[in-house]
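#struct-pred
JK: can someone run the complex with 1,6-di-O-phosphono-beta-D-fructofuranose? inputs below
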Amino acid sequence: MNLTNLNFSNPFPSRLFLKPINSFKYITFKHQINIKNSFITHPIRAQSLSHDNTPIEIDEVEDDGFVLEDVPHLTNFLPDLPTYPNPLEYSQAYAIVKNTFVSPEDVLAQQIVVQKGSPRGAHFRRAGPRKKVYFKSEEVKACIVTCGGLCPGINTVIREIVCGLNNMYGVNNILGIEGGYRGFYSKNTMELTPKIVNDIHKRGGTILQTSRGGHDTNKIVDNIQDRGINQVYIIGGDGTQKGAAAISKEVERRRLHVAVAGIPKTIDNDIAVIDKSFGFDTAVEEAQRAINAAHVEVESVDNGVGIVKLMGRYSGFIAMFATLASRDVDCCLIPESPFYLEGEGGLYEYVQQRLKENRHVVIVLAEGAGQEYVSESANANVEKDASGNKLLLDVGLWLTQKIKDHFTTVKKIPINMKYIDPTYMIRAVPSNASDNIYCTLLAQSAVHGAMAGYSGFTVGPVNSRHAYIPIGIQENLVVAVTWLLSRHATCLEGHVTYWYGKIDRTDGLLLVVMTNKKKQRTSNRTPRVPVRFDDHVVSSLGHKRTQKDDEVHVKKTVNGCTGETDKIGKTCVLEREENVDNTVLNKDVSGNKSNNKETSKTSDVSGSLSQYGITELEKEVVKEAVGCDNGPDKGAHMDVGEDGVDKNEAEKVNSELRDVHANTDNETAVKTDSVNSNKEEANAKEDKTKKEKDVSREDVGNKQVNEEDGFEVVNYKKNGGGEERFKKPNYKPNTQTQKFGPKKQGAGKEMYVPKNVQNKSKEVSSEVNTSVATPQKENTKENAQNKIDVNKSASGSKKKAWSVQNEILEALRRSANKYSALETYDENEISELQEMKNREKVDVFIEQNRKPTDDEIKGWNIDMQAYYNQRVKHMVDKGKKSVVNMATSGAEKDDVYEDNTGIAKCMKEENVKGMGKGVLEGN
Ligand SMILES: Nc1ncnc2c1ncn2[C@@H]1O[C@H](COP(=O)(O)OP(=O)(O)O)[C@@H](O)[C@H]1O
Ligand SMILES: O=P(O)(O)OC[C@H]1O[C@](O)(COP(=O)(O)O)[C@@H](O)[C@@H]1O
Ligand SMILES: [Mg+2]
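RT: done, structure tokens with the ligand placed:
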């Protein structure tokens, strides 16, 4: 594959780079084309913004970073297509409006906050009726299809497409394709008239039915051709829009006079660029009912713990917004922000604290949160639905059981657990009033766009004005937006006293939540307290579990269930004989069989019983293994004097572990005298151990295996590296320096800017990602120094823009929410800055879709490598096949790196096909 014509430094496909809005008739465009973001490759319309056959003077002039994210038009491949006057010209309703038609030069700025001299950024064509249309009304044969999951408002969109086509353009021939994409070739169509759809907006779901999978581009386009359909309206989420892009591409290949319009649908609100997705408001509103119910339940009992699971596969918008709206929620867990259960700052500790303060706690949980824990715990393979989406395991059940086990068994605190899963109930309701209006605008925008000859586009509001957006432009931005959100608002404490919020799509959603709680902070950020070696928690001593730890030590069968302990007496891996009565193991305090479905769920998932729901057995087995009954309860995990485990070392660790639990238990009066008397001694030991470890870390570099205990010592700097850093018990994301995760729009998109402002804009865009604007930042090194200086003195900043942010940072520090705390810089943070800088280096490769060469990798430390792999994996997981460019770096652009993820293949097939059409050739 020859990729010499591709310039990988510019990731933006098919865009025009124009002069500012006040000089539209001058146009200049770059020939640097990269195919990263778009699902579609289509020729650039080099003429101008006009699709009205009005010639506009083209001139090569200096641009100032104005980018038009243009949408394809039928005249791109059917240049002689005739135009007709828009029938709206004669419509009574429109005749009274002054500016009936959208000017071809109207565009919407994605960035509404700009600085003098900064690049203008991305713009989109304004949606709305055009003066000329490319279809005769009587010749239009439209069809509507709905795909993917349900969402409130789908029926409203269907209704308004039908009514819009009919009322505004006099179109009478509209078909409904039943059952999603597969319906094109496997089902009859249904006729849609204004009368038929008149009442459907009052119903949830979709009257056309929906499905996942079954997308066969050729069969679908054959069917479109056979039926003489010339306008296709496709309502669906990210998967559906990819399918729409494929259809549009095939239509173009066959040179058909068919307009393909997408209406983005997702209850998860994970589509970037647009302000929000339809049905989202309704979902948040509906979620209130579940949260209210949970709150009422738990405040009516003693030690009530309510868990409400809401939808959100990869993003936690519903959970976050429902939480913010409710004010009854103590903690909100979302997929973008890892959490942990045990140890300092863990969820258990927080729940206990809230129970103590408030006697009840409400947790809202997005279904995608903590999936890695659940699948590990349930020992289940990741399954996929027909569309290839990851099937989620029930994190709500898992968490319910985990918390229940922890408090009843470990803490000996009886709790009243109430778990509510309203997910499908929320999705199935009809859209509310404001969503109905929104759906109507979306539908009408789509109709106007298709009539105007655009094809391969989606619609949606950008800064509250509706726009036409190229399909696929959304994909890179989703995570960045949610990431930003999550870094700042992971956990809302019940009595949030004030919060600073700013909702601005240009910058993503920035939401900082603060509480009036004083953060308990140790002088050294290295965790001082050894924690239980849980599956997911990396030990505070820098130990990482190795396979050796998983060797079976004791196996025992109790009541038909078999459990094993590993050498450190940790967890049980359990199997269950058929027909075992789990009621023995799952009873509430009244002796009633627990209503939770975890037992059956667990065995459903893997055929074997996983850790939850079986704590009695676990206890039995560990008791046998360790010789006392405080194994899993009190964290005495190291077996003494057996299997090569050093007795003294084991004693020491056990003593530390007991001490930890004594400390954490002191509020619940479970500690023992002997533990008390040993406390100081244990602390001293612990400090000593920590110092030794620190020294040994310096000595060993990045990695070392401790022969004695089989642990691999990993030098994770402060809080760990790669994925593991999030599992560290004391990990607190530093929002200030956070560079992890895909970049936010702007930063991630590598906005084109003229050379003279390039450096400056780079600073700005990268700062968007960190939520702290440092527009005058000179270079990373200097900035790092500034950050440190600024943090030492809130008012002493030399940099104006920086100091404004600094006030917020200082405020955060003073009243930090421990789940998203910013802290004073210490030596560890300096190393974090270094880490951040390193990660910035890695970001460059990701942004350029470039695989590092062996030589380049040699200069990378373990964290950089892990970070690179994680970002690549993350993007592949999200189905961003085109994200990772497999061309090797530097001059060897001819080569395509083939890997077993199929990414290179995907790139070749999906994107490089644009070559030969004038799209990809340089000038
Ligand atoms: N990459 C893709 N290319 C073509 N069609 C796709 C693609 N991904 C998903 N689809 C199709 O889109 C439809 C809906 O996708 P799905 O992911 O289930 O829901 P949603 O569109 O709501 O995200 C399915 O029929 C599926 O086959
Ligand atoms: O309807 P299903 O197949 O159970 O899928 C549930 C999923 O659908 C959603 O509601 C929406 O997902 P899509 O937008 O991809 O259709 C997710 O929140 C949820 O995880
Ligand atoms: Mg989807």
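RT: quick notes.
Residues 280-429+484-516 form a domain with the Rossmann fold fold (CATH 3.40.50.460).
The longest helix spans residues 673-700.
JK: thanks, will look after standup
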